[in-house]
Amino acid sequence: MTDLQARLRADLLTARKARDTAATAVLRSTLAAVSNAEAQPVEEASLAADGPIAGAAIGVGATEAARRELTNDDVREIISGEQSERLAAATDLESHGADEKAEQLRAEAELLAKYL
Predict the structure, then answer these.
(1) What is the pLDDT of residue 66?
(2) Nearest 5°: phi and psi at 103?
(3) Which among 15, 46, 68, 73 could bridge 20 via Cys, Cβ 3.0 to 4.6 Å?
(4) CA-CA distances (angstroms) from residue 27 to 13, 51, 90, 96, 104?
(5) Between the CA atoms of 58, 55, 66 and 11, what dihedral angle is there, to the nearest 10 degrees?
(6) CA 82 – CA 69 distance, rounded (Å)
């Protein structure tokens, strides 16, 4: 776990204790994106074509996989992507008259900016 991931987790705990639902939601979704980036791609050859469950992994430990080790730069890139998605969605919502939701997304993007 990188220093930045540890900081995100610590801030999530603080936000949960403070019952800050907006910060909690943003930090949870960002940590989920980081966890998804750590996942290794599944090799098609390891999946069974026949048997009781088609497409199931076979063998002892077949479902265990090492996670990728991310650097702080990798995590920053993921956070930047999350921030960009929120800003793009805010612009789109604003053009459709949903100013309140757009403002909420901009606040979420601003919260993520402190990790960049």
Answers:
(1) 79
(2) -65, -40
(3) 15
(4) 10, 41, 18, 27, 14
(5) -140
(6) 20
pLDDT of residue 47 exceeding 60, the answer is: no
pLDDT confidence tier of residue 112, bands split at 50, 70 and 90: very high
Kindly state the tokens that stand for 44. Answer: 């098609």
Residue whose C-alpha is closest to residue 31's, from 44, 54, 55, 15: 15
How many residues would you count in the chain? Answer: 116
Question: Which DSSP string do the residues of the chain spell out, in sequence order?
Answer: --HHHHHHHHHHHHHHHTT-HHHHHHHHHHHHHHHHHHPPPPPGGGB-SSSSSTT-B-STTTT--PPPPPPHHHHHHHHHHHHHHHHHHHHHHHHTT-HHHHHHHHHHHHHHHTT-
The helix-helix angle for 3-17 and 72-95 (nearest 10°) equals: 50
